[in-house]
Structures are given as structure tokens and as C-alpha cells.
């Protein structure tokens, strides 16, 4: 990933919490050409030692390349937005602010038992916030028996991890404040979230 030094963010706490907060990733493999799937990818372990896990449908084009030791790239994307230089005090070039984490990893195929445990954790992770959650154990058994043979679960063992936070670091304070203001007043919730992140990163009151 292209990362100017001032935007690099490789500390372990940032990486771990970022993946937790943005679990819908882009899962990229190299088959006859580059192939990508958008899937939920969860993290397990702690800040010092973790791995990822997910699953795909067996009719997915990536399935034929899903083997132990296969190399993959996973991209986790945070809030992002176009930043107009018309907001600045002086004329400048417009830009885009964003944050992301890239993980290069090796695949390890899960056993059927591991897949079921992973699905239980995945469903619980997202379902627990619902008013009347429907957990894995509540899904009809026959439905699970029909569904499980159609998917393949896998672990993702990371070997290269890169983070970036491009949030207007080193810009003049006036320009940062205007950017925070403009994004904060946007109708787009993603813009408003980015406004808060820029404010926090640059310690703007």
C-alpha cells in the first residue's frame, strides 16, 4: 500500500481495533486474474497475537483457489471523503481523507467443526445488538444441515500488516477546522464520522 510516512499507522492497538470496528473486508486472491469478494471477516486473539477468519460460498469463483498456504490480501476500509480545497484559506489542491488497514495472509482451511464454531461466533458478533436476536443455535437444524456443505471456512494467518490514517495531519489549523466543520455539517453520516476522526487526530476542540 502507498503510505507517505506521516500517514503510516502501524501500532498494534490501532490495527486490532480498526479491524474490529470495520469487519466488512475485501478478500482478494490471484486466480487466472485478480478476484475479490466482499465478506465479513472477524478477528480473534489479542493485540499481540491474532488471526482472522471467514467463509465463502463454494460456488464463488475464488473457491477453486482456496487452499492451505494460498496467499491473499484483505482490505479493511474506514470512513473516507472528498476534501474540497475551496474550504481552505488559500488556494490548494483538493484531496481525499481516509483510513484503511491491509493484511497479507496465508489461508488455512477450517475443519467442519471449526467452521461451525466460527459461524456461531460470527452470528453472535452481529446479532447480539438486535432487539430480538436470532443466534446460530436458534436457526432450524435442517436449514443448517443443508447450508453447511455449501460453504467453506478458513483462517487467515497474517504475515504483513499495514495501516494508514490520512486525516489532514500537518495542514494549517484553519484548514483543518474548516474541513471538520464542512464534513460535520454534511448530510452523509460517513462524512460526519470522518469529521470526528480528523478532529480527534489533530486534537481540535
TrEMBL record:
Composition bias type Basic and acidic residues, residue spans: 189-205
Entry-linked Gene3D superfamilies: Electron Transport, Fmn-binding Protein, Chain A
Top-level taxonomic group: Bacteria
InterPro entries in the cross-refs: Split_barrel_FMN-bd, TR_PAI2-type
Pfam families, per the entry: FMN_bind_2 (PF04299)
Residue ranges, annotated region (Disordered): 185-205
Classification via PANTHER family: PROTEASE SYNTHASE AND SPORULATION PROTEIN PAI 2 (PTHR35802)
Name of the protein this chain belongs to: FMN-binding negative transcriptional regulator
Protein species of origin: Christiangramia sediminicola
